[in-house]
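Write out this protein's structure.
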Amino acid sequence: MREPEVVHEIIAECIGDVLATDSSSQLHSLADLGVVAQEVHHAVAGFGPLQQFFDDPTVEELWINEPGRVFIAREGRSELTTVVLTDSDVRDLVERMLRASGRRLDLSNPFVDAMLPDGSRLHVVIPDIT
């Protein structure tokens, strides 16, 4: 079994366990448990709230100039998204992306250009360095 399939299977089992053991769970009221499973998968095995943009073939570029302002480009036009991240969210996402690339970001390496496993390019700069 491939890694994404294993992750999906584990998530499905966990959701099933919650539903089986907690009859008051809010999951019972959700119309589509598949959406919950997908969001959990994005959080644990993808790039969290940014994963939707990585999965969208119309998105050409994504950038975060500050945590509260996440932009994407489609057809050469910039769009401010509704995604709002915290400083901690951005740090966690950058660490996850860099781990996948084998690169690191610190004061001795304040700029990083890397390639993600899907071929996306990543450019990261420590704040206040530029």
